[in-house]
Amino acid sequence: MKLTPLLERRIIYLVLLIAVTIPLLIPIGWKTEVSYHVRMAYDLIEKTPAGKAVIISFDYDPSTMTELHPMAMSMIEHAWKKDQIIIATALWPQGPQLADKAFTEMLKKFPDKKYGVDYVNLGYKVGGMVTIQAMGRSMETVYPEDNSGTLYQDIPALKKIRTLKDISWISSLSSGVPGIKEWVMAGHDMNGVSVTGGTTAISAPGFIPYINSQNQLIGLLGGLKAAAEYESLLGLVGPASNKMDSQSIAHLLILVFIAIGNLKAWRKRKADREKNTLGVKNA
Amino acid sequence: MKRTLPLVVVFMIGMIVILSEFIPHRPFSKINETLENWFMIISGFAMLLGQISLIQVNTSKIRNRDENWQYNLAGMISFVLMLFVGFMWGMEKAPGLAGHGESLQAVLGMKPFDYLFEYVYTNLSATMFSLLAFFIASAAYRAFIIRSFESNLLMITAVIVILGRSSFGAMLTGWLPESWNILHLPKLTDFIMEFPNSAAQRAIMISAALGIIGSSLRIILGIERSYLGSDK
Question: ipTM of this model?
Fold first, then answer.
């Protein structure tokens, strides 16, 4: 039976849907190996002393939540375990709500953490890199109040924070522009603050050149696998680890599709060659 | 005058910003600071402009009954609905024109805007992004075909990275001795990402940066004028 391209596509979609769904319902439990870049990001947070203020920038929207939200939760958990003060910012309009969502979920594990003392959500600011540059001169000018309208000077967590230079590390969880690149250029290169981050698997190759001897970017979490690796470093089985089986199966299935595609192309080439040879002989 | 004045303004501002990078002292630093504040304010207005443009484009398509105008109508209804609930009852801790909407919160469990964001927008966005997996699977089936040396190289690299980026890949070569570590699939993937990939990415980034410098200079010097609405 000859399959039409449309039918082929539909079969691929259906098989992939089944392959992705089954491991979500019946987990396999494959282990993930921690990569060097994830360990770099982990070590940066691990080595920061307690009481230091850090920034987690929520530079993504709900479309990439599956990959980036587990990273946000792991980083919040890690920073809180080390008693660091988290300042949430956002260069994307939907960021503040996603930050609130992550904090709400993590508060179930850390019920003692207080808003305004252990963490604060400064909300969204338009302007991308220029906003970060301005934060290098005065945080209060850029964020006169937090996301709920409390004045900057009335927030205890921000008492000692004048400029970006008072921040120990910045983590940009980014799914596009503005994001990691802007934080590297304005946060690290202009203000000397250590920058790390997380992004989608598809965007990660573009940021790897920033992990260099000048420490422009200290480690990078690329995609769901990196989020699962971070969870394993924290000794957790979190949302990323649970979804990794599905992703691994999907990867394997794509390899099977590639093999079938090549087999089909090889058979077609062979048939064409035979047809040509037959044509020459008949002529 | 109508065309000369913007060109003069662009030239002056461009030169001040460039000079302030090399002379980070007064008056340049102060002027640059003011310009950055202006930029943030103008960017805020750009969002408003985007919304006006969205309304104009969609209403025009609905009015003219263009192809698939029903989708534009659905988009406009969603836009107006989010705007309405946001204005009326606010979002998160911020109140709206009619306060916090306590009675609605009692039914929905949260403010209407937050409810729509959490249970409609978030899921629809995630669904759209997830569709990528299906397209990638279908594209891989058709695109990664062995035809030439280059396509072979692409396919071999893709297979290594796909396996290396899965938990299965680590398991597959986990038995290799320490001295063969480079052939361990996750390590091999890291190597590909860190060296061949970075080299190519750097070349692209440097080329793009040079292109941006060139374009910026053309704008500052008034050679490139298309941003004024015409290239003449």
Answer: 0.85
